[in-house]
């Protein structure tokens, strides 16, 4: 018997018209290692927004129930040329109950279980997922497992990446995000030094309350000085940044070099030899990244993405990471949400305008059957 | 008997006053592994200019014989805080004849020989150098060996770095420079693919005449297209850039991603997984480096400096590189100069104004006894 349900699709035409709409879809029977999951909850992560909203003008868009049509201005439209005309699903991750499975033992074993999954089309009433990527949630409600993959595995991935590079302290430029809070708990549990940058006093208090010992507020007058002091105390010449655009990475490198320069015994026109390493793992800002020539040549900046990292890390590491997530779902890896919306509500002007700002503490959860 | 001679010193005061002057100096007796070299020729490399001129305003400077006094504007002056008040020598490398040596066998063996050396104060009639860093020039005149270190070892260092990273093709953003020409010869000899970017037709002809098969002119209308085609043909997702500021690296990453995107079978909002790697090894432009969010997350950008590279490469590799330079001094590693100046002439307005522009093909050679 065919399963039908509602699913979100996003299409960008060559002229810059972005159409995001809920449609009725018939889902195929799962085969092999596939499972069919009746979705109960899916978070709207920053990593979902590029495809869902991108640089579209939400103010001038037209909104009808279950649909919005907006214009993506240039040069963003031209930059997204590769997706022109493609009708794409959205939603990296979510949680729900397995209602059918392919013939493999792994898939069959999940029938009837509530699982966290990473289907890539989670804004939907049903999803086809890979059984190997499902995490059984036991008695946990779906909300506990909706965000069990992207943020937890990314935060753990930072700790793993640092370990592989021999770094024992991390700088994180958006400390109070859901991911930042997870990273704070992980670093505390694993004895990794952590410098958290926040933008508000209440965020600083939140992290301090979680036991974060080095929290620096970028809105304070002595920010640059305080940041350098925190780097000096922790040795965090290694960090992760989800902003990408603007001077976030530049500020971090400058503070790192400031600390390294203080330790130099002789002047060098080339700056210090202290290796400084930053990773951009998101694009909260699509402005260009600005790097000033003020920290010599001893630095490296890379993009960082979860899936390529998991591939390079290997099965053993990934298995260990996933077990740790499952065992600490409501503690280390707990997420919180500002608002729950169904598929139609997520495409209203109010909701879109709010969640597309990606403000810390304002994450949305899609509950497609509510 | 004490040896005296003229030497250049550069001093930046806290108020931004830059004083560069030739002074009479008494040189110490060489001890241990040191040699005293009577300098005959020293090139003015881009890497020397930061300390010699930096961002000083040469138009409003005051010039007297053997001296100029200029103002370094903010924020460059504040950025050079670490050298405020320090009286610094200049000139990374040069060549001359060893006239005295310390007691070590290595040093003694060089007495009377013409050598290439890396004293860090080569704008001088005499230098104290480390015998281990001297390259005996045999019958070569000093001019042949004046630039035997910085450019040759840097160009060879690129090839070594690429090999260590498993890259078999290199993109070089300033192909027609002295260093670029050396790199062209090295890549041809070693079977490494090379994409050379130039800015003028005559530079393209020069490199083509040297057998460079992929030369792209950034002034041509189809530059971006031609660059992508050259990257596609060579597989050069790996490159070196001496400009640093502006969009030089950004342009390279964009073209690399363009090639990688063509090979993708499915759309990904994150861009391709093709690793792209660039190194900034100079600062011909002190503008900020601009990186646009248009090539996903599969990229890494690092600073690259010769001395830290040599330290990490180890003695065997460095020894092999130095032998190759010595054996190919007037072929693979030949340099050419536009003009020869003595120590006083190098501080005249005409000379400073020209060589501080660091134009391709306009390198100066300092001949302190002429």
Automatic annotation (TrEMBL), chains A, B:
Q: Name one Pfam family in it.
A: ADH_N
Secretion signal span: none
Domain spans labelled Enoyl reductase (ER): 16-318
Matching CDD domains, A to Z?
Answer: ETR_like_1 (cd08291)
Q: Which SMART domains match?
A: PKS_ER
Coiled-coil region(s) = none
Keywords annotated in UniProt? NADP, Oxidoreductase
What Gene3D superfamilies does UniProt report for this protein, alphabetically?
Medium-chain alcohol dehydrogenases, catalytic domain (3.90.180.10), NAD(P)-binding Rossmann-like Domain (3.40.50.720)
Q: Name one GO molecular function term.
A: NADPH binding
From the Swiss-Prot or TrEMBL record, give the protein name. Answer: NADPH:quinone reductase-like Zn-dependent oxidoreductase
Q: Which organism is it from?
A: Palleronia aestuarii
């Amino acid at each position: 018997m065919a399963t039908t349900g509602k699913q979100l699709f996003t299409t960008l035409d060559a002229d810059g018209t972005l159409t995001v709409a809920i449609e009725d879809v018939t889902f195929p029977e799962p085969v092999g290692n596939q499972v069919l999951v009746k979705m109960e909850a899916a978070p709207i992560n920053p990593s979902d927004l590029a495809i869902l909203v991108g640089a579209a003008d939400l103010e001038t868009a037209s909104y009808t129930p279950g649909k919005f049509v907006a214009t993506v201005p240039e040069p963003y439209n031209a930059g997204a040329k590769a997706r022109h005309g493609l009708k794409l699903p959205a939603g990296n991750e979510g949680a729900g109950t397995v209602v059918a499975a392919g013939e493999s033992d792994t898939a069959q074993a999940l029938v009837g279980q509530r699982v966290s999954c990473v289907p890539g089309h989670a804004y939907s009433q049903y999803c086809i997922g890979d059984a190997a990527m499902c995490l059984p949630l036991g008695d946990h409600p779906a909300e506990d497992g909706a965000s069990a993959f992207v943020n937890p595995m990314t935060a753990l991935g930072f700790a793993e990446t640092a370990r592989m590079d021999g770094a024992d302290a991390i700088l994180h430029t958006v400390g109070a995000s859901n991911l930042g809070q997870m990273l704070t708990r992980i670093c505390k549990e694993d004895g990794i030094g952590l410098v958290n940058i926040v933008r508000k006093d209440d965020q600083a208090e939140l992290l301090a309350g979680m036991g974060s010992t080095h929290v620096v507020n970028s809105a304070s007058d002595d920010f640059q000085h305080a940041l350098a002091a925190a780097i000096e105390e922790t040795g965090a010449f290694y960090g992760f940044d989800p902003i990408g655009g603007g001077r976030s990475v530049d500020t971090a490198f400058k503070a790192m070099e400031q600390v390294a320069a203080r330790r130099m015994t002789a002047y060098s026109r080339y700056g210090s030899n202290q290796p400084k390493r930053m990773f951009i793992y998101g694009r909260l800002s699509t402005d260009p990244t600005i790097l000033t020539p003020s920290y010599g040549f001893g630095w490296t900046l890379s993009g960082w993405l979860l899936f390529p990292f998991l591939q390079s890390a290997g099965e053993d590491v990934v298995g260990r990471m996933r077990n740790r997530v499952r065992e600490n779902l409501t503690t280390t890896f707990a997420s919180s949400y500002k608002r729950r919306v169904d598929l139609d509500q997520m495409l209203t002007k109010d909701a879109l305008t709010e969640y597309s700002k990606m403000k810390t503490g304002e994450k949305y959860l899609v509950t497609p059957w509510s």
